[in-house]
Amino acid sequence: MEQKSLTVTLQPPPCQRHNMREYCKYFCKECNELMCPNCLRAEQHRYHQIIEYREYFQEQKQITEKQFRKAKNLLSSIKELQKSISRSKKEHQQKCDKDDGEVEIFHRKVRTDFDEWYKRKIMELQDTKRVQVQAIGRARDEMKQLACSGDSINIVE
Known about the structure:
The protein has helices at residues 37-40, 53-149, and strands at residues 26-28, 33-35, 50-52. The chain is mainly alpha-helical. A 3-stranded antiparallel beta sheet has the order 2-1-3.
């Protein structure tokens, strides 16, 4: 960023109290106001700390420059913090996206494994049913043969 400098020639403002005939060449620190030589003779400023207006503006310039440097440093810190937050947000989003992908893969695997297990169980039940139906059919056939032969049936408990 390019540094720009500003040169200002200070001219004291005219005094508002004395009909702009005099220029304010002094500053009263207690009253926090610029004064002309006539104001300076006033009794109210007798024991106040009075400085020349150039000294006052120099102090104000130093205060302003110090505040500007602090603001500039603060702005720099804020920008760095914004960058850090942006990076953290991006990293967090990438991790969430990765986690979402892993959850989706895990879900598909669990679903596939369950579907395969379910199909196997259905086939086992169908096989068991077929075997039982065949066994019942054989038993029925044997009972028919026995009934036709006239032999007596002994049931053992």
